Amino acid sequence: MLLRVTDLHKSFPGPDGPLPILRGIDLEMRAGETLALTGESGSGKSTLLHLVGGLDLPDSGTVALDGTDIGALDDAGRARLRRDQVGVVFQQFNLIPSLTVASNISFQARLGGTEDPVWTEALAHRMGLADQLAKYPEQLSGGQQQRVAIARTLAAKPRLILADEPTGNLDEATADRVLALMLELAAETDAGLLMVTHSQRLAARMGRELHLRAGRIA
Ligand SMILES: Nc1ncnc2c1ncn2[C@@H]1O[C@H](COP(=O)(O)OP(=O)(O)OP(=O)(O)O)[C@@H](O)[C@H]1O
C-alpha cells in the first residue's frame, strides 16, 4: 500500500483548550490512485495533507508511506522520506527568485539526485512553459508560476503527490488542462495523487473523493 493512514487525531490550541480538528481519519491509497479531498473551509483538509506529508505530527494515529511509519522516523529521516518520496504543491509556490524557471523546475529533482533532463524538458513543454524557461519567476504571471511549481514537483517523480488547490490561481480552462496533465503524469509514473479542492468539477475527475466533515471522513 502506498499510503495507509490509521485513526489520525489532531487538535490545535483553542481559547478554551485543545480544539479537535481531525478526529479519527482512516485512509488508504494505492500507487497510481487519485483522490480528491473536499470539505468546508476549516474542516481540516490542509491539516491532513500536512500530516500525510510529514510536515506536522499527529496527536495520535499513524501515517505509513510504502510501509514506513513516518512518526517513527527522526527529523532527518522524515526530511529524507519527504525529499525522496513525496512531492508537495501548496498554495504558496515557493519558487526561488534568483533561479531561472528551468532551474526552478529541476531544483527538487537535483536535490534528490533524481534529475532526468529529458523528462524535465518534456514536462516544461507539456505544462506550456517552453518559452518561459530562461525567465525568472517574477517575470511570470501567477498562473505561470503555479505551473512552474507543479512542474518542479513532478520533475522529481515522487511516489505520492500532495496538492493543496494546485490550480486555484488558474482560469477554468487552464485549471482543467493542468489537472488533466497532472492526472496523466501521475498515471505515467504510477504515483498517487491526493489533492485538496473546493471544486466539485475537478473532484469529479479524480478516481475517488473523500469528504471531510466534523473531523471525520463523511
Ligand atoms: N497551526 C495552527 N494552529 C492553530 N489552529 C490551526 C493551525 N492550523 C490550522 N488550524 C485550524 O484548524 C482548522 C482546520 O484548518 P485547515 O487549514 O486544515 O482547514 P481547510 O479545510 O484546509 O480549510 P480551507 O479550505 O479554508 O483551506 C481551522 O479552524 C484552522 O484555524
- The helix count comes to 7
Instruction: Give me the CATH fold name.
Output: Rossmann fold
> Roughly how many Å is the radius of gyration?
17 Å
With strands numbered from the N-terminus, the spatial order across the biggest sheet is: 6-7-8-3-9-10
Ranges where pLDDT stays below 50 over 5 or more residues in a row are none
Give the CA-based shape.
globular
Reported CATH architecture: 3-Layer(aba) Sandwich
- Tell me the CATH superfamily: P-loop containing nucleotide triphosphate hydrolases
| Small-molecule components bound | adenosine-5'-triphosphate
- CATH classification, class level: Alpha Beta
What is the CA-CA span between the terminal residues? Answer: 22 Å
Strand-pairing-aware structural class: alpha/beta
The proportion of strand residues reads 25-35%
> How many individual β-strands?
10
Q: How many distinct domains?
A: 1
Helix content: 25-40%
Overall pLDDT metric: 93
Q: What can be said about the biggest beta sheet?
A: 6 strands, mixed
Q: List SSEs in N-to-C order.
A: EEEHEEHEHHHEHEHEE
